[in-house]
Design goal:
Layout: E1 5-7, E2 10-12, E3 16-19, H1 26-36, E4 40-44, H2 59-62, E5 69-73, H3 80-93, E6 99-102, H4 115-127, E7 131-136, H5 140-149, E8 153-156, H6 170-179, E9 185-187, H7 193-202, E10 206-209, H8 211-214, H9 219-239
Parallel strand pairs: 3-4, 3-10, 4-5, 6-7, 7-8, 9-10
Antiparallel strand pairs: 1-2
Helix pairs in contact: 1-9, 3-4, 4-5, 5-6, 7-9
Length: 265
């Protein structure tokens, strides 16, 4: 863990976070999560059996909490009140677990975040002792407001949830990165490995995804691709890319000993 990610005082070696929904079954979910190398996994409390239904398979049997950090989320919530209620239920189901992902949606068609409701829910949850990671718009002002409330990470969307459109506004994402000191995690819109690499090259601290892996033709293979993409993007960011040049070429081989000078020299 020479380059660990720290969230709410805990360190992780993986900077890829993966959702547990939309897979064919829990077996495929487990195989994809294992292939991704993710240590933090999200779970929709309203849609996933964590032991509420004793007659059905439980995700806990396939992905033990002793091996993964569960990140219960509020997928499907459209008000602050519903989101707070859902995460309080999650805390009971997961024996006092405090790390959560807040998302309050504004519209069922595009699933864009409702920021006034999100800010309200975040304030309530932080006061209630939760460590809140929060899905938000790519707005640096509101990201800073969430940080000031006490959220432990902000999670701006790259593009609409489930769209696979990649990072549509890298400039706003850069503004968010520059505006806050808490981890910035791209959430929503990643479609393939290059999207994850670009997010990390921009300076994001991590990437969270679900559909990009679960809806791939081969989810397990795509999970491995995402793992490598996040690592490559992070390494490229730390290494520092060469300067961009609009026209001035620079030979990669020595120019001494040439028979004739290049034209224009």
């Amino acid at each position: 863990m020479h380059d660990p990610l720290t969230i709410a005082g805990k360190t992780y070696s993986s900077r890829l976070m993966v959702g547990t929904g939309k897979y064919r079954d829990f077996e495929q979910t487990r195989d994809a999560i294992q292939g991704s190398g993710a240590q933090i996994i999200t779970v929709a409390i309203r849609r996933t059996n964590l032991g509420q239904d004793t007659d059905q398979p439980s995700l806990l049997d396939y992905l033990p909490p002793s091996q993964y950090t569960y990140l219960p989320n509020t997928a499907g919530c459209y008000t602050a009140q519903d989101a707070v209620r859902t995460l309080r239920l999650a805390r009971e189901l997961l024996d006092g677990h405090s790390l959560v992902k807040l998302e309050v949606l504004g519209d069922a068609d595009h699933l864009y975040p409702n920021m006034p409701e999100t800010l309200s829910a975040a304030q309530t949850l932080v006061q209630d002792g939760f460590d809140v990671m929060v899905y938000c718009s790519d707005d640096p002002v509101q990201a800073r407001m969430l940080q000031d409330i006490g959220c432990v990470a902000v999670m701006p969307l790259a593009s609409i949830i489930g769209s696979g459109m990649g990072i549509l506004n890298p400039w706003n994402l850069q503004l968010v990165i520059d505006a806050v000191q808490v981890p910035v995690i791209v959430d929503a819109g990643v479609g393939t490995a290059s999207d994850a690499a670009v997010a990390m090259e921009l300076g994001c601290d991590a990437v969270l995804m679900n559909s990009a892996i679960a809806h791939a033709n081969d989810p397990v293979q795509m999970a491995g691709a995402m793992k490598h993409a996040v690592v490559a993007g992070r390494q490229a960011r730390l290494a520092g890319r060469m300067p961009r040049k609009s026209y001035a070429a620079e030979a990669s081989s020595p120019t001494t000993g040439l028979i004739a000078p290049a034209p224009g020299s």
